[in-house]
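Blinded run. Sample ID left blank on purpose so nobody reads anything into the name before looking at the predicted structure. Input follows.
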Amino acid sequence: MLLALAVVWGSSYLTAKTATDALPVLIVLFLRYAVGAVVCLVALGRSGPLTRDERRYGTLLGVTQAAVLVLETFGVAHTTAGNAGLIISLTIVLTPVLDRGRLPGRFFLAVGVCVAGVGLLVSGNGLRAPGAGDLLMLAAAVVRAGHVVLVGRVTAVRAVRPFPLTAVQTAVGAVLFLLPAAPGLPALARTGPVTWAELVYLALGCGLCAFLAQTWAVQRTSATRASLLLGTEPVWALLAGVCLGGERLTALAVLGAALIVTGTYWGQSVERAQRAPGAPAVPAPSPDHADTGVPQAR
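Blinded prediction complete.
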């Protein structure tokens, strides 16, 4: 599920780039949430009333997810795609650090392979001196890592259901972007069907369904493994650009993609072995990770 999510999010870069050519960034961000929120309101009645935890933590996760998207979108707009792809890959390193788990050195070697792969992917465009966009992408990497860890901790010991939690996140994002986007909403009257199709894909495929899939999947794995699998996103972004956007695929890009996939699954195997029965002891989890006997939502 997380690997499929990486494919979808990888394709979102090309889709968002095309959509923002036709509409302002804030309009795209608002509609990405608003369309999903409408679908959630229609479907939420079958899930029963929201619990206190679903309202509380859905709001918190909605804010962090919106922060990731706004930082990424404006960051890409003010830097090169190469810089953005390389900096956002730091999420892979930051997640296990924020997750406060002790991992062996070979895990970070695998992370280094991933980062080297991203460097090769973007080397064709060259790297510029750090600017405002690069700093925004660095902030996005930190917030994204924190969001993944937060999803894991919130869903680990609380009986929250993935869909209601996702519905609250989506509604929060729509509310947050409504006022900033309001001045540009009249431009939607001149928006063509292709752009609307892109917006619906961003809202449902890359937004609602993706957030739901992430919540569901993180409940059944670790935040670190989730970050590793989502770390293949640059590969799928490259393939979308080549196959659908007409971008040129170089030999270095192929090598970089191979390194990212190799590093991702190497790191996954190291992290899985660390959590296996009989593995060396790790530090005691925080209270948020304590086993309270609460069944996981299905």
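Unblinding after everyone has recorded impressions. The chain has a mean pLDDT of 76.
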